[in-house]
Input
Amino acid sequence: MAHINYYFTVISPFAYLAGTRLEEIARKHGATITYKPLDILALFARTGGVSPKERHISRQEYRTMDLPRQARKLGLEFNLQPAHWPTNQAPASYAVIAAQNAGGGDVGALVFGLLRAVFVEERDIAQDDVIKACLEEAGFDPSLADSGLLSGAETYAGNLEDAVSAGVFGSPFYITDDGQRFWGQDKLEDLDMVLGGKL
Output
């Protein structure tokens, strides 16, 4: 059975644009997914990247053009300047980790729900009530937001180390069990083709 390690941050607009296509691809090919939320700013610092606000103006301008364009192409609602961005990534990331460990719900739906909360619903995913609502909407016990914080923090830090070791430098980033790497929501078609033996 194929497996995909999915590295992402819960505040990535490009991870939001991925929607639920990763999960659809995994189901199509009978693949499993390990969700690995991480601190994107720490990843940038370790791999030569810079935060969006520190990038050259030409890169910033392109980003403001391309993100809405991609959202329209995908038929997704999208707010280029959400009220709560950036925000503290850690609490929502810990919730994803706790949910994945607990089982019983849909982790992909939880991740997309958190991203949608940021880029569509103008909710702050650093807030406990928002995280609990997203957990419940994805079929998880909302009290997971209050449990396993220490192990969540350890896994969160470990995900960053794993990402650096695996060659990850952005979000979303997908790695198959045979080491094939895919950066960006626009590479999901390639991931699909590789899993299907067509690329």
The chain is about 50% helix and 10% strand. The domain at 3-195 is CATH 3.40.30.10 (Glutaredoxin). The chain has a mean pLDDT of 97.
